[in-house]
Amino acid sequence: MPRTLTEKLAILSDAAKYDASCASSGGERRDSRDGKGVGSSGGSGICHAYAPDGRCISLLKILMTNFCIYDCAYCVNRVSSKVERARFSVEEVVRLTMEFYRRNYIEGLFLSSGIIRSPDDTMADMVRIAKTLREVENFRGYIHLKTIPDASPELIDEAGKYADRLSINIELPTERSLADLAPEKSVQGIRQAMGAVRLKREESREKTHTGKARAKFAPAGQSTQMIVGADAADDRAILGNASNLYANYGLSRVYYSAFSPIPDASKMLPLVKPPLIREHRLYQADWLLRFYGFEVDEVAGQGMLDLDIDPKTAWAIAHRDAFPVDVNRATREALLRVPGFGVKTVDRILDTRRRGLVRYEHLVAMGAILKKAKPFITLPGWQAKGLEVADLRARFAPPPEQLSLF
Amino acid sequence: MRIVLPLLGTVAAWRDHVRRLAAEGVAPEAVRWTVGEEARDLLTVDLPPVPSRQLKIARDALEEIETALCHSDPERFNRAHALVLRLNDGLAWGDRTNPALRKLMEQAKTVRRDIHKMHAFVRFREVPTEGPRRAFAAWFEPDHHIVERGTPFFAKRFADMDWVIATPAVTARFDGTLHFEETADTARPPPDATEDLWRTYYASIFNPGRVMVKAMQSEMPKKYWKNLPEADLIPDLIRGADARVREMQAREAEEAPERRRAVARSMAMPERPEPEAGTLDALRAQAAACTRCPLYAPATQTVFGEGPRDAKIMVVGEQPGDQEDLAGRPFVGPAGKLFDEEAEAAGLDRRQVYVTNAVKHFKFTPRGKRRIHQSPVAGEIRACQTWLQHEMGLIRPQLIVSMGATALQSLTGKGAGILKRRGGIEEAGDGTPILVTVHPSYLLRLPDPELARVERAKFREDLARAATYL
After folding, report:
1. Do B161 and B204 have their domain in common?
2. Measured between beta carbons, which residues in chain A are less than 8 angstroms from residue B138?
3. Measured between beta carbons, which residues in chain A are less than 8 angstroms from residue B95?
4. Which of these three, B132, B157, B182, is where a domain ends?
């Protein structure tokens, strides 16, 4: 008996939930004030709901199909899994997207897919969905397409024309684990596809010979996802790979996804609880690399990040000679390295410094987290103290768990 | 003095009043503001016809003040009134150390968050209509007075349908134009069938392996739940999560039959015919998997040479750059473009020459979203020599044009003194003549425009000389 739309939706959204990204921000500013279509995008995204897993629901995140000819051990949809299978038609995806959108449930569509028949066949179907949304439904909301690494360049071209964002998952932190766990995928194939997308994006920003602007290509950029905890790679390897990806392909984001136990798991994988705190620390470290001027070896030189304290505080404790920082004199770079000071706080401090002295009492108003910053700063109204105590770390780390007695 | 502001257009009315009050010199403390329906005629009744005074307020300050005026705090009008006068008298906008400014900014932030949550949590239900456009309705309960400020967003987004957003005080109605009215009907619109699909989606996208209720509630506080069709699923989803994870773990994985996996594998990786041994294509395929030095690891791909198999001239550069690494082809970046220009001017047709690099992977250090070029070291040049020598062996050029120190090092074993050697002809190990010249990226880096012009001309001469071998 053919499955109902509800059954398909249940199967194909269940199958999509291991993808962390749900971002709908950035990209091209559009709206439908001309009355000829529906939707708007640009600026910061909107999370329309939150699931009890703490993740934002911004997009209709579904697989076109979870039939797949690949056998990636970490994936619930791999060919050797016995999970229930389903497949949406182009019209069904279009209808779900439009009806959800009109009710203000979502910002748009995040479409991914298992590989059916061949990478090109699969990509062509996904592109058809995006094209129908844009050209038939006049949909101006957000579209994120997961690109199939080995699809032909012509299909990627078309995908970038309709989608705001393209992504290709790097999947695992090292080439070795990709070879072990995802035998049909190759690091080189994935990187070549990312390289091609970056070139296309740059080309689309150049004017044509006649001085006209070119058609937009994936204006919200490209992103990727790395699974954490399914292999033995340490945090240094993960962040090293991420910073390489940012530099090589100008990615908007690298998502870290704590490996989650999946139904019908491959025997090659650990049956463990997902290392959620590790995922969280990796995001913090990723931010330090991108916005705070840290290098991979500074935050993850030890191999693994400290799970008990955030990576910036960990770095500060290990480099006490760089502190205390004089809030009224320090450079922007030095202020950014103070625990409890974010980019906004630092900019506000610099702004206020132009008008006069910054006092301790002002810091809260500027968004600083004083509990973290206190030992590392000096300014009128406060003298740093405690830097010399041996167990500075203990002040920030949660108390050790007591052994439970029977 | 008591001023009653209208429920609709509150902020605009307040602004008009403040201009008049400023002209009259009324102190902010002397005014008692309220919002209510009897406001309509008071404006003319209460105030003598004094011309209003223009106050000078920065645009971003006014924007922030008007946002903060949507706050539910009853003191907001007095506070904003006082602040406007102080700003007009020269108080610097943006100083967070000033308690009054800070308070205002915090209230504006609260209002923005309330508006953001409205954009997120309004749930439309389709309602019957006689008109040509589809019609939708929603009921929403904001914390602050945000309907007029928050609903233009919906007008931009849902412009091809009619809709109504009703809140306890104000209702926004859109039929191509946005209207506001005092809410008369507080009945919730009836559920529509698509809500069940949405609930199915909500329940299915939840990952029971990672329950983080606090994270959910900090972004979707319980006060919103009663108007969210999906929210009543939450307690059961949380309660059932542990059992679902245990069930997953208990379910022993059973591998699919070998035959099915083999079929799938052959579909996933169709056999490609291997290139004939000893050809350029075979060499290219081998080089694509090269790991003879560590440079392969961070790079995108091996960038192999290209050009006609029977080329008389082989041009050897240093290594692929950023663009070449992404495209997988040599000489396509800025240095490649300069080479093309000068080669054309020198009568050297790029299509007739074989172009390649001494080192086939891009060496760089990542710096944010950019890659900084690094020169390859002797060990890396040596590791890559094999590929260059095989290319030379297959192409058998009459002349090799060696551009830059790295190519010279690889071809002759000695890269030093390039500026003295440039323009000369040397010999490769197999006796092939090598024309020594500089790398085009050297020309791009010269800061002195006069020197750059001279050097470019010399480079062109070198290429023109090479062209005589065609």
Report:
1. no
2. 104
3. 352, 355
4. B182
Of B118, B138, B161, the one marking the end of a domain is: B118
Tell me the residue length of chain A: 406
Give me the half-sphere count of Cα atoms (radius 13 Å) on the Cβ side of residue B14.
27
Number of Cβ pairs < 8 A linking chain A and chain B: 252
B444 touches chain A (CB under 8 A): no
Query: Which CATH number goes with the domain that contains B285?
Result: 3.40.470.10
How many angstroms separate the Cα of A319 from the Cα of each of A286, A315, A381, B116? 20, 6, 24, 40
- B-chain residues within 8 Å CB-CB of A265? 248-249, 253
Closest Cα in chain A to B289: A188
Residue A171 bridge partners (DSSP): A226
| Residue B113 covered by a domain | yes
Question: Mutation test of the interface with chain A: which of B119, B234, B326, B365, choosing the one with the most A Cβ atoms within 10 A?
Answer: B326
Q: Does B44 touch chain A (CB under 8 A)?
A: no
- Among A267, A260, A228, A226, which residue's Cα sits nearest to residue A243? A226
**Same-domain pairing of B368 and B433:** yes
Window from A69-73, B63-67, B252-256, B343-347 with minimum mean pLDDT: B252-256
Structural domain range at position B231: 194-249
Please tell me if residue B91 touches chain A, with a CB cutoff of 8 Å: no
Q: Which of residues 3-62 of A touch B (CB under 8 A)?
A: 5-6, 9-11, 13-14, 16-18, 31-40, 46-57, 60-61
Q: Sort A343 into a burial class: Cβ within 10 Å, 0-12 / 13-18 / 19+.
A: middle
Q: What tokens were used for A61?
A: 């995140």
B255 in a domain, yes or no? no
- B271 domain residue, yes or no: no
What residue ranges do the domains of chain A occupy?
A: 5-168+184-207, 311-396
One domain for residues B160 and B211: no
**How far is A165 from A168, CA to CA, in rounded Å?**
10
Same domain, B91 and B217: no
Q: Percent of chain B scored above 70 by pLDDT?
A: 93
Distance between the two ends of chain B, CA-based, in angstroms?
96
Residue B255 binned pLDDT confidence (cut-offs 50, 70, 90): low
Which residues from chain B sit within 8 angstroms of residue A222, using beta carbons? none
Chain B (243-262) residues lying within 8 Å, Cβ to Cβ, of chain A: 245, 247-249, 251, 253-256, 260-261
Per the CB < 8 Å rule, is B265 touching A184? yes
Total structural domains within chain B: 4
- In 10 A of CB B410, how many CB atoms? 24
Please report whether residue B257 resides in a domain: no
Q: Are residues B103 and B138 in the same domain?
A: no
Find the residue in B nearest to A106 (Cα).
B120
Regarding whether B450 and B317 lie in a shared domain, the answer is yes
**B198 and B155 within one domain:** no
Burial A356-369 (b: 16+ CB within 10 A, else e): eebebebbebbbbe
Rounded CA gap, B157 and A32, in Å? Answer: 6
Is it the case that residue B48 has pLDDT exceeding 60? no
- B467 token code pair: 């062209």
Q: What is the pLDDT of residue B369?
A: 87
Token pair recorded at residue B422: 């440039």
Task: Looking at the complex, report in whole angstroms how far the Cα of residue A398 sits from the nearest Cα belonging to chain B.
Answer: 18
Based on the fold, state whether residues B59 and B126 are members of the same structural domain: no
B288 and A188: CB-CB below 8 Å? yes
**Amino acid code (one letter) for B349:** D
Chain A residues within an 8 Å CB radius of B268? 69-71, 115, 184
> Which chain A residues are within 8 Å of B368, Cβ to Cβ?
246-247, 290
Test mutation, B104, B165, B197, B238, chain A, max A CBs within 10 A? B197
Flag if B253 and A188 touch (Cβ within 8 Å).
Answer: no
pTM listed for this prediction: 0.91
- Range of A325-329, B207-211, B413-417 with top mean pLDDT: A325-329
